[in-house]
Amino acid sequence: MSQEPQTAAVPDADETDDVREIQVLEFKLGEETYCVDIEYVSEIVDKGSLTAVPNAPDYVDGVMDLRGRTTSIVNPKALLNLDTGEGESKRIIIFDSNKFEDDAAVGWLVDEVYQVVRVAREEIEEPPLEKDDSIEGIIKRDGELVIWISPVGAATAP
Length: 158
Fold this sequence. Notes:
Elements: H1 13-20, E1 21-29, E2 32-37, E3 41-46, E4 60-66, E5 69-74, H2 76-79, E6 91-95, E7 106-110, E8 112-120, E9 124-125, E10 135-141, E11 144-149, H3 151-155
Parallel strand pairs: 2-11, 5-7
Antiparallel strand pairs: 1-2, 1-8, 3-6, 4-5, 6-7, 9-10, 10-11
C-alpha cells in the first residue's frame, strides 16, 4: 500500500513578500534622502502658487486648492527641525486624508521625488531616538542611509 507524500501548505509568494517587504516613496530634503510608506501617499503634484495663512505655524507654507479641497502645505524641514540647507522645493507629496484622524488634507513640500522602492524588513533598523514618533526607522541601502518618516507621527511632532 503506497502512501502519497504529505506536503505542508506553502503560502503564496505574494503573501510572504507583503510580510517581509514594504514599499516606500523616496524624496529629497536638502542633501538627504527620506522616505514615507507609500500607503500614505495619494498623489504627487508640482509646486504651484500657495496662499499664505495668517498666524499659521512656521512649518505651514500655505494652502492650495487641489481639486476643490483646501490642502495645507507643510514644510517638513521646518516641521521636523531639519537643517537641510536651502534646497529649492519643487514637488508636493499629497497624503491620503483617510489616514489621518482629523481627515486633514495635507501635503509635504519636498525638493525632489525619486522613486517608489521595495524595502526588505531586515534592511530597516530601529530609529536611534525612541521618543521620536516621526521616525519609523533607518534604511541602509546602496551605501547610504534613508530616514523613514511617519507622516502621522510627524503631524504630532510639535
